[in-house]
Every structure is written in C-alpha cells, then in structure tokens.
Amino acid sequence: VLELADYEGLREEQKRRRENNDPVQLGIGFSTYTEICGIAPSQVNAAVGLGGAGWEYANVRMLMSGKVEVATGTTPHGQGHETSWSQIAADALGVSPDDVVVLHGDTAVVPLGRDTYGSRSLAVGGVAVHLACEKIVDKAKKIAAHMLEAAEDDIEFEGGKFSVAGSPDQNVSIGDVAAAAFMGADLPEGMEPGLTENYVFDPPNFTFPFGAHICVTEVDTETGKVAVRDYFGVDDCGPVINPIIVDGQLHGGLAQGIASAIYEGAIYDEDGTLTTSSMVDYMIPGAPELPNYTLERTVTPSPTNPLGVKGVGEAGTIGSPQAVINSIIDALEPFGVKHIDMPASPMRVWKAIQNAQGQQAGEREADASLESRGADVQQGGDE
Amino acid sequence: MIPVAFDYEVAESVDNAIELLGQHGEDAKLIAGGHSLIPLMRLRLAAPTVLIDLDRLDDLRYVRDEGDHLAIGALTRHRDVHNNELINEHCGILSYTAGLLGDPSVQHRGTIGGTLAHGDPSGDMPSVISALEGELVIKGPDGERTVGALDFFKEFLLTDLEPEEVLTEVRVPKLGSNTGWSYKKFSRRSQDWAIVGVAAVVEKSNGGIDSARIGLTSMGSTPIRASATEEALSGASTDQVEEAANSADEGTSPASDDAASAEFRRHLARVWTRRAVEEALNR
Hints:
The complex is a heterodimer of chains A (383) and B (283).
Chain A: H1 2-5, H2 7-19, E1 24-34, H3 42-47, E2 56-62, E3 68-72, H4 81-93, E4 100-103, H5 121-148, E5 155-158, E6 161-164, E7 167-173, H6 174-183, E8 196-201, E9 210-220, E10 226-236, H7 243-263, E11 293-297, H8 315-331, H9 346-382
Parallel strand pairs in A: 3-4, 10-11
Antiparallel strand pairs in A: 1-9, 2-3, 2-8, 5-6, 6-7, 9-10
Chain B: E1 7-10, H1 14-24, E2 28-31, H2 37-42, E3 50-53, E4 63-65, E5 69-73, H3 78-83, H4 85-90, H5 92-98, H6 104-109, H7 112-118, H8 124-132, E6 135-140, E7 143-148, H9 149-152, E8 153-155, E9 158-159, E10 166-173, E11 179-186, E12 196-205, E13 208-217, E14 224-225, H10 227-233, H11 241-245, H12 262-281
Parallel strand pairs in B: 1-3, 2-3
Antiparallel strand pairs in B: 4-5, 5-10, 6-7, 6-10, 8-9, 11-12, 12-13, 13-14
Helix pairs in contact in B: 5-8
C-alpha cells in the first residue's frame, strides 16, 4: 500500500505544505487490521454462549434439463449471493452461471439456514454450496461410468464433461447425466434416482482476512474542514469469487467508515431529544464528499475451507475510521494536536487546533519561565 | 410526513394571483418551485390553507438587458439563471451561485423569486442579492413598487412583501470589468445549507480596492452586510484585506447549532470574508 500511494511523494508534498505554512495541510493516515470472520465453528459458538449452530446449509439439485437450482441458508440483502453462488456452482459443475438459479430467504424453499452477518456467508454458506456440488459430481461420475461402460476410476471430469481417460471422444455431459439420473431407467444397481445433494458445512475455525489502508486528507487549518483526497487499500480476503462484488463491498464499507470518522453522529440536546433525526441533520456523505478508491489485493487462502475464501463484508468499515482520524492527526502534527473525537466535524477540528495552540503557548511560557529561573540559579552558582 | 390539508388554486396571471390572495386572506401562500415551502409544509412548520400556484406564469421567466442592469423574471429557475449567457457575462456571481445552491433537483425546480421571497438567511441567493444591492419589483392591488435588497429582508423568513403582493422581477447591476466577485460557501456536505456564506463584490482601482460590498449568509436572522469590513476596505490596498476581514462579524448575531457555535460562525465569517475578497481581487 506504501507503493500504491507513492508514500515518499506524499511525505514530500506534506513537507512542502508545512514549510510554506499552507493553510491547507496534508495528512497521511495508516491502519492495518486483522479480522475474525466466518463466524462458524459450532463448538466455539457454544463456548462463547451463542448456543452453537455455526454451520450453514446448501442444497444443490440438477434438473432434468441440465439447469441447476441452489438453495442456500444465507440471506442476501444486497451482497450479491445470487451471483457469487451461481459462479461457485457453475465452476464446480462445469455449467454456465446463467444455468444456475439461487433460491433463498423463504423457509418454504430452504428448510435449514442460519444467517448473513460477520462476513460469514461466503466462507460458510458459499463453501457449503461448493461441497454440495462436489457430492453431485461424485454421484454423477458413478452414473457417467455406468453410461460409458467404464470403471469409475477411469472417468475424468472437466468442463462439464465426463470422459474416459485416454479416450476423450467417449464422453457424456453432466446435463446428460442429470437427465439419466432423473429418468432413473438405467442407473448403477441400487442407486437412488435424481441428482440432488445437501451439505451442512461447519468449518473447523474462523477465517482471518487482513489489510493495510492509507487515507490522504487535506485539512483546512483555518476552518477545520477535512476533505478525503485519496484512499488506498490493499486487502486480503483470500481467493476472490467476484471482483466487482468485492470492490463494491469495499467501496461501501469505506464510505461508511469515512462517514463515521468525519460526518455521521447522533446528537442529543440537553432534554434528551435527538436533534440529528432527519437526513438534513444526520450527515450521510454523498459522492461529492467521498474520494476515488485505489484498491489492490493480495491472495492468501484460508486453510479452514476448501475454497480458501475468507469474507470481505466489513473490511472497508473496519479499516477506514482510524486511517481517516490518523490522517487528520498527522496533518495537524505541527500544531500539537494529538486527539480528535469522531466525527471530526469542522468545529471539532478547529477547536482541537485552538486548544493545542493554547496549550503549546502555555507550555512555551512555562518553559520560558523555567529557563529564566534556571539561568538565575546558574548565575547564583557562579557567584 | 404529510402536510395539513390545503386548497389549491392556479394563478392565470399576476393580477389573478393578487386577486386570489385578496380572496383567501393571510393564510394563503404563493408557491413557485416549491422547494422551500413544501419541505416546511411536510414538517408542519408551515400550514397555509390555500396554495396559489404561480408556476404556469411563463411570462415571468425572462432575462433582459436593461442598459445598466439586468432584469430577471421572478419565476426564472436557478438552472436557467446559471446557464443564461447575459447573466454569465454581466453578473457572474449570480450565475455561479445559482449553480451551487441546493442540489440539481432544487436548481431545476426552484426559482430566483421564490428563494428571495422565502427570506431564509441561510439561503445563498439573499446574501448575494444584498451584496449586489439588487432591486426587487413587487406588484400588489395598488400597483407596482421597487424595493432595494437591503430593505427587503426584514426578519427570519419575513420580507417586505405584503400579504396581497407578488414579487415579479429581480434587478441586478451589470458588473464592469473592474469589478471582482466571489461567493464562498462553507458547508459540511455539498448540498447542505451554508454554515456561513460570504458574497463579495469588489470594485478594483489601480491595483487596490475602491470599494467592496460584502453579504453574509447564516450570520443572523436576515442576510447581513459586513459593514465594518466594507468601511475598512474602502480605498484600501490589497495588503489590508486580512485586517479588514477581521471585523466581518461585527454587528452580526449568528445562531449556535449542532453544525457550528456562534463563536465558530464568527470565526468562519472572518476567514471566509478574507478569502472571498482575495478571490474577488483575482477575478
């Protein structure tokens, strides 16, 4: 993230502004975080008083048409599970994501399920989809071997096709297998018809996404107004299923964190009445107040699930407030400002500068009087 | 939230609007773009029993060159003020301010006459018109009269308009090549009302200042002129701007609220006045 932000260049610009007594000072703020995500292991949930049930459920069924239905216990409300779960199923089954329908949010459709929070949906629920698909492929392989009159061990599965090792022309598609499974007229002896599998995934541990952020602010030292000029982040949420969704989660989270740091606050008057009760008074920032985000990723898979995925729901919100506040404090370092409460409104920033300067002036006076007294003592000693 | 029930009349002409005001009495209210009045009604801070809609009076939407000044029809929308070539050429501060007040939907619906008649001291346009020393043309049952901007704004949300009068035209001077201007708005978010705003119109001469007119937004119950600063800037050199700006809050009575204490508003008025005059000198 230092490279991404051109850290040396930023420090040079900051130095110039300080030397020129520019009323608008530059701040560079850091934050690093390690999250605990994928709230899951049922035993851990029980140990911390949550009762347990940290698993997540998926049902995957291949229809006779070759289309796929995925029923998930997660409940998306804007996180795009329909898209990402389609991709997971499509990858595992070798079909197009367009042929996958994701069902959720209704106990009439999905009998079992836990929740969507704590960046757990992908790392627990998405993985359950993947594992249910693997069970589908295992069963389909047996049927394909039967259809191709080959040993199961000789069957290879790639790109949605089962073929006999060494004779790629001898193959059946997973859609063909699904149709055969549905018809049930010619299956291996003793096999249940249909191609539908459940998986209830209970991971052995949490996941630990991490990241490093740099926030660049311009602080008007005469008015206290803070503008976030740039925001840089390098986040590691493991392998990425859908880059646009991951970026979107980060953008939204960063906006929320920047909003907490500078704009949003609930204020009560002395009678206990909430005065920030409308969208006029509760300062939700819009696009004009927010910067462009420059984001990169590293990919460190989690060892606790077969996809290695870790979750990204809170990364932006967790990384940003302290990066913003650190940036403001950094900009005001020459003034001796060491602390500002959130949200750092113009009035708060201005007061912090006033107080720090008053304090510095007081300290200078105290130093001066100590020095002069010291000089007296010195003189006395000389005599 | 839902406003108190009200009746609705459409004015066919200015005279018809005056007639309707006479018929319905003091609880009737004129409406143009509605972007100040309707929010007040939704919050039930205003509860007119009759709304008289001026919005179909297209003949009150115009911009005319009248020699030494521009005449702007009261129903001219902010967006049209912002984009008008005559205003851009001769009164840049007006088109600039029309382009930053509120948000795009306010700019496309709201009118210059509406925002002035509303008389909100935290509106941007009232202090700009005060700094320009514009004139307002008012029509009532007894005919037409003209009021200077400084006499128009009386109290918080109260103007010189009588209950049966309609604001029909706004007149602003054409600014010469030696006139610099600036409107500086301090707000936390781009669409918010000004915590403090400063409109500066500066007559320049020989590298110095001949005179300056400074209007302040959100510094009292009406738009206010920073008269102590104006006096200090009369005939001043450019290096006297900072000292002159330090008296910008003299005679103001800013409110304290969540966004800013009165003390902070006074401070902002001084800083923003200095910056506005400096910008005006460079424009």
